[in-house]
Task: inverse folding
């Protein structure tokens, strides 16, 4: 979260939120003055996240049933976006990323965590990701491989 500039008061989008692992942690980090959008295309995941947010008293955590190519976030609404282990599942990544870009404040950061792969093995090559994200209008700001000790995963950070 530090690398994405997520702090008290930030607005964060977790795209492909799944069970909400990151959403919950981000919600705690941004506090009562921030907000977290947990976005997924699977409504059962969102129901689980809503229940958890209610039980854990996280009123700043909101769920959004997005589309496969559009997170349906408000325009110019977020400071940081994370796609964690999601990018390889996206059928039209450039279309999705152009929609994501429209939701980001100036200076916002986009983080992508995934694993090197061929696309059919729950991974996608980091160079493919970098090229697609750049075609969507982003600039690579940082490239890390510390996610797991095996070096298979990467964490890419992009700016506008």
Result:
């Amino acid at each position: 979260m530090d690398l994405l500039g997520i702090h008290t008061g930030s607005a964060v989008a977790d795209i492909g939120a799944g069970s909400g692992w990151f959403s919950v942690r981000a919600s705690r980090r941004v506090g009562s003055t921030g907000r977290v959008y947990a976005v997924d295309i699977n409504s059962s995941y969102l129901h689980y996240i809503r229940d958890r947010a209610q039980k854990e008293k996280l009123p700043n955590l909101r769920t959004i049933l997005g589309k496969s190519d559009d997170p349906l976030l408000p325009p110019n609404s977020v400071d940081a976006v994370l796609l964690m282990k999601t990018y390889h599942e996206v059928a039209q990544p450039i279309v999705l990323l152009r929609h994501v870009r429209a939701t980001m404040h100036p200076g916002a950061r986009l983080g992508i965590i995934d694993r090197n792969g061929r696309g059919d093995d729950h991974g996608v090559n980091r160079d493919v990701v970098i090229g697609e994200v750049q075609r969507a209008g982003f600039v690579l700001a940082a490239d890390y491989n510390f996610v797991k000790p095996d070096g298979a995963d990467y964490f890419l950070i992009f700016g506008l």
Observations:
- The helical segments are 21-30, 43-55, 93-103, 126-135.
- The chain is about 30% helix and 30% strand.
- Strands lie at 11-15, 35-40, 61-65, 78-84, 104-115, 139-144, 153-159.
